[in-house]
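>> received
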Amino acid sequence: MLEDHKAGIPLTEDERRLFFAYLDDPENIRLLESFISEDLLNVNPDQIDEKQKTESLENLYKRLAIPSDEHKEATPVRKLLKWKIGWAAIFIIGICSVAVLVLSRREQFLTAKNQNDHIIKKSLITPGKNGAVLTLADGKQIVLDSMQNGVISVAGNGQASLANGKLNYKAVQVSGQQAAIAYNTISTPLGRQYQVQLSDGTSVWLNAASSIRFPAVFSGKDRVVEISGEAYFEVVHNSKMPFKVKAGNQVIEDIGTHFDIKAYSDEPLVKTTLVEGAVSVSTATQHVTLEPGEQASAASGGINVVKVDIDEVMAWKSGFFAFDDASFDDIMRQLSRWYNVSVEYHNAGNGQRFTGKIDRSLPLADVLNGLQFSKAHFKIDENERKIIVLP
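>> returned
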């Protein structure tokens, strides 16, 4: 539906009624205001001339069937748009996409339940949060999200300190013989994400259902870690001791860089995306070097390199889902990991594709209600923690 509005197709009567029913609640108006503000942080009103501003805003009013200035009565929508968004914001965002996109991201449909049979009631299933499990070299497991700040003994010449939801490793001096290498693993369950700083200063962010295995202290000729799931790295470069990541059938070597690796077992490809600097990506049969903005996808047929949208790839780290012509299955996999739910298909999605950006802090019901704008329908089984995709 959003694409229709961008193309100039007005809201239908049902959509308009749903929209105004939503705005009957002052709290919903406040939420709409806050999300518009969030989406417009980078807008520069001085770059838009006054004629464009006026025409764009009036065009939006007409498509939403909001009374124009010649009418004495101002609707809540008109008051909100004119006051908060301003003329330039309407022009920048594009006709009608502001209202429709924002509504797809919050509790917009809950107050209009009687107008739509597919409204999903407010659910107890909440979004993921910070947390992980640390497995030490001796097999002992520590649930990090339930621990207080403090120092953790990790064996070998390493020490880890927990502070404000982040685990920081460092090398410590130990008298006598060189201690044996102690490998630790940090794993994020479904519905969790976590950040760790390795002993060399490299920072790693783990997405949901991911893990990293690493030595508590690096030694030898290179620094090698292994991951599954998705992780973003900001590597402290050391040409004398290269940093390497093993992920699926790839080995990624840092050349002074920030990069993301997506290597879930239920994904068809292992994908390495370079954000900054340079990396080399190798398989048993091929080797490539990436430039910023490039993504390497490795499968049995070799490595394929394409240009990608960095903001979309890194949206998870910034607290969003970002979809650009994403498949139904791709979206369901992401929701499943972040909300710790399974997916039951009574409908395969009929080849639908999705484009948009959704806040990962929203309850599951709100996200699914937003997706229903694209004629996909769902229900939630809270007892089984399951999304059911309806026919």
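>> DSSP finds ten helices and 24 strands in the chain.
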